[in-house]
TrEMBL record:
Name used for this protein in its record: Stoned B-like protein
Originating species: Parelaphostrongylus tenuis (Meningeal worm)
Family assignment from sequence similarity: Belongs to the Stoned B family.
InterPro entries: Adaptor_comp_med_subunit (IPR050431), AP2_Mu_C_sf (IPR036168), MHD (IPR028565)
Pfam families recorded: Adap_comp_sub (PF00928)
Localization (cell): Cytoplasm
Domain MHD intervals: 1-256
Length: 342
């Protein structure tokens, strides 16, 4: 790992054990680390170059066609440009690992991603999206075999399921690009479901989805540690010293919400015959009942009491048990069983 680009540190923060005066004078970070403790030595901000390509490109889309909803997420890793000492610029495959893409789900739709199991309720897991031969293709064309039910969640790589901790549909990928695979290959997550007449359409959706991943042998700021020394030690030459570069990336991506007539059609162009295009788009999903209307319907069943009536009711409730027994006698029911053969 080598770079010749100058880096300007901004908003520098140090650990309490760092000698700040030594850093300002010698530009050396000198500290006495605490024992058996993992801590952060330095934190700073930089200004990355313009038009810098992201290591992991994410495109999140939600399409709504009437009562049908499709969630689609595309992930693509880019090839990183690295420069070796004394060499030329070369394309180096630095994979993205431990990827987690969290697509927020409205609260009214959470139950769609849950299923009953033998020991309670769990989340629906994704199925592998594989292209290949279709089983019983001839019988399906003749209509003798019914087609299988479509999967709720499908992904080309990794695993996806709803995680209630994040209130999101989480897509986890171990690594992309995979071993012996090239960069700039798109991986797709697709989730399709249909709303029933009792499902509510949210007034507003979450604007962004969250992305987290790590990159080994890389740093976003191109910072390089030149040397590490250990002083005031009995045998400093036998102390194991090494530097491990890991870039932990976290950012948010805007979600595109599209209302269309068909999921297979791209976003409609409103500049060409907008009236005709809007006629082809089905109406937005409407539930069988509205909560506001139901609340207004039952508004007349409310009984309101003034202060005097409330005080009178409290006095009646505070009466003793003897008084209540005198005022309310237990009814006696007698049943004659002569005509029943007894």
């Amino acid at each position: 790992m080598y770079t010749e680009r100058w880096i300007r540190f901004e908003e520098v923060e140090f650990h309490s054990t760092v000698d700040k005066a030594a850093f300002e004078q010698e530009h050396v970070i000198r500290l006495s680390p605490p024992d058996s403790c993992f801590f952060e030595v330095m934190r700073f901000r930089i200004r990355p170059p313009r038009n810098r390509e992201k290591a992991l490109n994410i495109k999140a889309t939600m399409k709504i066609a009437g009562s049908k909803v499709e969630i689609r997420v595309e992930a693509m890793a880019a090839a990183q440009l690295e420069k070796n000492r004394g060499g030329k610029n070369t394309r180096r495959q630095i994979p993205c690992e431990d990827i987690a893409i969290r697509f927020p789900i409205p609260e009214a739709w959470i139950y769609i991603f849950r299923e009953e199991r033998h020991w309670g309720v769990g989340s629906v897991h994704s199925k592998k999206m594989r292209s290949g031969k279709v089983k019983n293709l001839k019988d399906r064309l003749l209509g003798t075999v019914q087609s299988s039910e479509p999967n709720l969640i499908e992904c080309a790589i990794g695993e996806a399921k709803y995680e209630h901790v994040y209130r999101s549909l989480v897509w986890r990928i171990a690594r992309i690009p995979e071993k012996h695979h090239v960069a700039y290959k798109a991986h797709v997550l697709r989730c399709r479901f249909e709303l029933s007449s009792f499902d509510m359409m949210p007034d507003a959706f979450f604007p962004r989805c969250e992305v987290e991943f790590t990159m080994p042998l890389a740093t976003v700021s191109n910072t390089v540690v030149r040397s590490v020394s250990v002083e005031q030690h009995e045998d400093s030459s036998r102390v194991e010293k090494f530097v491990r570069y890991v870039a932990k990336c976290q950012y948010k991506v805007e979600i595109d919400y599209v209302q269309c007539a068909d999921f297979e059609v791209d976003t409609l162009n409103p500049t060409v015959n907008p009236d005709e295009l809007m006629n082809t788009v089905p109406a937005m999903h409407q539930p069988a009942f509205q909560p506001a209307e139901v609340e207004q319907m039952h508004e007349g069943y409310r009984i309101e009491l003034n202060d005097s009536q409330m005080d009178r009711a409290q006095d009646q409730d505070s009466s003793s048990d003897d008084d209540s027994d005198k005022g309310h006698k237990m009814p006696i029911i007698q049943i004659d069983m002569k005509n029943y053969g007894y």
